[in-house]
Write a structure and sequence with these properties.
Low-confidence stretches: none
Number of domains: 2
Mean pLDDT: 94
Largest sheet: 6 strands, mixed
Number of strands: 15
Distance between the termini: 15 Å
CATH topology of the largest domain: Nucleotidyltransferase, domain 5
Radius of gyration: 17 Å
Shape: globular
Strand content: 15-25%
Order of helices and strands: EEEEHEEEHEHEEEEEHHHEEH
CATH superfamily of the largest domain: ATPase, nucleotide binding domain
Helix content: 25-40%
Structural class: alpha/beta
CATH class of the largest domain: Alpha Beta
């Protein structure tokens, strides 16, 4: 498990690599918020490690002195073991078995800490968001191009859970219930909520969580779909909304990088 250490001051830098966009910003580590407006660039296609690394370097360089020589935390939509990507979700399959930590450290010329995207978001939520001070089991789902997951036990992160890929109704969960599917299929909020209901009920059966948190860009519209769910577990939007990945990546780079 990844421990929750405490940083009292300073600035970090976080980058969030997604299937559609790559976002980055300097982060106030004490307050858990951006210290400058984030910058976003479309994810290159094909989204190979080299192409994405170039965009990451561009974003960091774009902040100039604001990025200084800070260690950089980078989220990747993949299982990350000791800096190496073991899967590739919604990015080019050439990421698999790539030493992302070494690639980005060389590209940026500074220390880099690489982490699964949903794990970074969960880490930030435990420190500054909806999971702060919550005991027991907290499950977080990031709903976007796919479904990412983070699992927290008494504030400690259990990494690389990948519960977005569990089978629900004979299908990979994210292929039915990701926010991108809602948009592509033109689902109403009500129809999408029915799919989320099946997904989160399955999570309840597997984990018996004390709290479920929903993150990703669609969390800004949580009032449109969360009230439609009938779960036994309290379910709330992420306190940091879609900024959680960047903030969590910066925290982890500063504390564990």
């Amino acid at each position: 498990m990844t421990a929750q250490h405490t940083v009292t001051s300073g600035t970090g830098f976080g980058i969030d690599i997604g299937g559609s966009g790559i976002k980055g910003a300097p982060v106030d580590l004490a307050g858990g918020q951006f210290s400058a407006d984030r910058h976003r660039i479309e994810t290159p296609q094909p989204s190979t490690p080299e192409a994405v690394a170039g965009v990451v370097a561009q974003i960091v360089a774009g902040f100039g002195a604001a990025s200084g020589t800070l260690p950089v935390g980078v989220t990747v939509p993949a299982v990350i073991q000791h800096g190496v990507a073991r899967t590739a979700a919604n990015v080019d399959k050439s990421w698999i078995d790539t030493d992302v930590d070494a690639l980005l450290t060389q590209k940026l010329g500074r220390p880099v800490h690489v982490v699964n995207d949903a794990d970074a978001a969960g880490f930030a939520e435990a420190r500054f968001g909806a999971a702060k001070g919550v005991p027991g089991v907290v499950f977080m789902a990031t709903l976007g191009t796919g479904i990412g997951s983070a699992l927290l036990v008494d504030g400690l992160l259990v990494p690389n859970t990948e519960f977005g890929h569990i089978e629900v109704g004979g299908k990979d969960a994210e292929s039915r219930a990701a926010d991108s599917v809602r948009e592509t299929e033109g689902l109403s909020w009500e129809d999408w909520a029915k799919r989320l209901q099946k997904y989160f009920r399955t999570i309840e059966k597997l984990l018996s969580p004390d709290l479920i948190i929903v993150g990703g860009g669609v969390s800004k519209k949580s009032e449109r779909f969360l009230p439609l769910l009938g779960l036994r577990t309290p379910i709330v939007p992420a306190g940091l909304r879609n900024d959680a990945g960047i903030i969590g990546a910066a925290l982890l780079a500063a504390e564990l990088g």
